[in-house]
Write a structure and sequence with these properties.
7 helices, 27% helix, alpha/beta, Rossmann fold, 11 strands, 275 residues
């Protein structure tokens, strides 16, 4: 077991993915749903007051009656609010527990259990949203896949609205390791366990890997969560290759004017109109 621990706890290779079923793990998905639904906790979702702010801004940006696809919708916090504004909304998420909750509590919207990297629509939506910096949690190859699929799924002139973390969030961070003991269980596991955590930085401090290794009496689990941070220039260089036009830039997904000094950055991309 010690050799297995050594193999799991070493620094990961760039873009290495863990194989543990994070989104649909029975215990973790329950903890995630509770975090989504806590109105004052900025964890799985933003605080609900911030979500209200985002939906208010989106409803000014997106024409009335539009068909919207909400990627990574979780339990439908944005999806339900947008439906209540009169939009035709589809929410898509890779957590069975979150989708089940959303379907139970929102009958206006359509909900789909699916990995959004397997999106397969053609010119079906007027707007697509991906909010709370999910874009940067994808590896480079996954981001390329997503952009191609989003472009295809949008109608001509359609909008892709998403946010990312900026380099400001990484300025003071360094590689680090820590450990904690959870005798009564915790977020990662219901059993008593030790949690080994590490952060590693790559690509000129623009890519962070957060590694978590869980040790119980009889099991070892490893989870890797990646995050890439961007400037306006680096994000534009990446996304405009796919044919999008940069419609507008904001500090956040509430539509705050762009200053270049915020922790987040929000792009509104437009698919080219037909000639």
């Amino acid at each position: 077991m010690i050799n297995h621990l050594f193999s799991l706890a070493r620094q990961p290779a760039l873009w290495q993915r863990s194989v543990e079923p994070f989104w649909n793990d029975g215990h973790i998905s329950k903890q995630m749903l509770e975090a989504h639904l806590n109105p004052d906790w900025e964890a799985a979702s933003r605080r609900h007051s911030d979500i209200d702010c985002s939906v208010k801004w989106l409803s000014r940006l997106i024409p009335p009656g539009s068909r919207i696809l909400d990627l990574g919708c979780g339990p439908g916090l944005y999806t339900k609010r947008l439906s209540e504004q009169g939009y035709n909304v589809t929410g898509l998420d890779f957590s069975r527990r979150s989708i089940a909750y959303a379907q139970e509590h929102d009958t206006r919207s359509r909900y789909i259990y699916q990995n959004y990297l397997e999106l397969n629509y053609t010119e079906a939506f007027d707007s697509i949203t991906l909010i709370y910096c999910d874009y940067g949690a994808l590896t480079l190859s996954e981001r390329k896949t997503l952009l191609s699929k989003v472009y295809r799924a949008l109608k001509p002139g359609g909008l892709f609205i998403f946010d990312v973390f900026t380099q400001k969030t990484n300025w003071s961070k360094q590689d680090s390791t820590s450990w904690r003991v959870y005798p009564d269980g915790g977020f990662w596991n219901a059993e008593p366990h030790v949690c080994l955590e590490a952060s590693y930085f790559f690509e000129g401090h623009t890519v962070e890997a957060r590694q978590t290794v869980i040790l119980t009496d009889h099991e070892l689990h490893q989870y890797l969560i990646w995050n890439t941070v961007f400037t306006q220039e680096t994000l534009a260089d990446e996304v405009l290759l796919w044919g999008f036009q940069l419609d507008s830039v904001y500090n956040d997904s509430c539509g705050s004017p762009y200053t270049g000094g915020a922790d987040t950055l929000c792009f509104v991309l437009r698919k080219a109109q037909l000639a």
